[in-house]
Structures
1.
Amino acid sequence: MNAFKAFKTCVPITWSPNLYITLVRGIPGTRKLHRRTLEALRLRKCNRTVMRWNTPTVRGMLQQVKRLVVVETEEMFKARKAKEANHRALRPPLVVNHLPAPPASCSP
């Protein structure tokens, strides 16, 4: 199960005041009604996210295009963005010394 499906299954959407909607499937090849619904939601390109209020109208639109989008609550969206930012964070550089090792001196 991918992360988006895991997010979708574990959160009751009706309790969240704001919904973050991400288009995860392409628009070409979809029904005209679905394209118009995505246009009304202001989703035009894949992997773009919009924030909408949680109203019955928006939930009905999402029910219609549920196979094309992923719905997240505000907490889930912030957690995902923090995880992505942490993944992209700068790490300390590796220092590799290419100089030959100093000869070991043995005194008898």
2.
Amino acid sequence: MVLVLSLLYCFAHLSNAAIPCGTVDMKAAACISFATGKDAKPSAACCSGLQQLAQTVKSVDDKKAICRCLKAGVKNFAGVQEKFLTQIPNACKIKVGFPVSMNTNCET
């Protein structure tokens, strides 16, 4: 959920989100082991899930919604480290268009 881990939260649960937070959480869940430093690199499942999420983005509002979901999701996992979280987009070859961080402002 890192994402995104950001991402990821980025993701306060929104009732009007085009992409439900449950979907975001499911797609990003495999990234937690890397985001907490347990795995040396993001798993294939992590990258695949995030790539699938990226493909669902149709608008800026979709990006914001995913960001909010990821940001909220990251808070549910103790041990997520910023230094690993920020590496996920490059490691998975995903362009998100904004810095991935637990402090990302999803509204900008």
3.
Amino acid sequence: MQFSKDAYCPVRDTHHEAKDHYQRWQCYLVPELKFRLLAALFVVMFSHAVAYDPLDPTGNVTIKWDIMSWTADGYVATVTINNFQLYRGIASPGWIVGWHWAKKEIIWSMVGAQATEQGDCSKFKGIVPHCCKRNPKISDFLPGVPYNQQFSNCCKGGVLTSWGQDPTTSVSAFQVSVGLAGTSNKTVKLPKNFTLLGPGPGYTCGPAKKVPSTLFLTADRRRRTQALMTWNVTCTYSQFLAYKNPSCCVSFSSFYNNTITPCPSCACGCQNKKNCIMSDSKLLHQAGINTSKKDNTPLLQCTHHMCPIRVHWHVKLNYKDYWRVKISITNFNYRLNYTQWTLVAQHPNLNNVTQVFSFEYKPLLPFESINDTGMFYGMKFYNDLLMAAGPLGNVQSEVLLQKDKNTFTFKHGWAFPRKVYFNGDECMLPPPDSYPFLSNTAFANPIAISTVAASVFLLGLSLW
């Protein structure tokens, strides 16, 4: 048997054809199959990190820089953060935007926001810059800052509602004066390596790209001005980058079956099982037990699913032309209130919603030809705040839907949603084989029973 110099496969042996075929299979086909399997596995693993949402294909957070004026050693820019996601907001403690300067730029001053760290500014005499770090991190002001530090659309603690809820409150802005930078369109270097925490991980930002200058209208709307230079940064969200486990779960029940289908066990992972607290524990009466931590570590109520949020979908009533669903959202986190929460459900009968009783409702149409997805959110100043775990830690509503006689059925779990999202993150549903099932006698015709009874009664009278 001879071996080639550049490979470990033997040279073909014509005297042993069967053995030769096996050697060719082992030396050429097996490595090729391994390569293809590894390539397919890589694609599958990488696809989980791709920030694409089929229910909101164009959703993103856009960070826009508009240079409004030049200074002696740099420029003054207005930075605007637009949340273009239909149902995913940025909750408290709010957004943090970061980047890496291309040269040795500094921030002289800011209005409407602040750098989280000043950095080493020891080489400056006289006026000390606001921030000297090469990679500054910027956070929004809290409400109530002095008037001279405010800017339009600022000072909301970094909280942004989703675009679908309210476009006017889904934007934030601040002004930054940059020094040791370029003083013209040709000498300005765009920052790089942008990051966005909203408030935790999950967002991936692309590179800054120059775009046509933003146009502005004066207060009387009779004159139009434009920025001296504009660039955009687009950030997209991936739940797989944000969490190792789901952050919510769904349970089901119905009027036609006494069985309640609970959330799956350890649906959100049981890593917090050792630190959870029972609902009747005396520790809940201690001062500061509900205080949020800087790292947002949750304090969960001990449950079998260990999720901070549970969504319960109950098929409540059946009418001739309509059917009714009750939706309940329960918070099991003692340290977090959910402001401006959203709930998204996917169900074929959401194309014919008749009435929603105590939630706001908006259909989502990512594909115009399909109307099976809707967003529920709280009414302003009524139930748009989901309180921390406890007696007040829940919100609920009922939905009345009109039947489509061609598709409507209670069989095979049709009445339950296909997907559920809370605050933009997909919740874990129970396995389909555990859904409350429809028994064969659940909708037996009551007239048929009374007819049989009447027939037996009349027959007895005739014989009597």
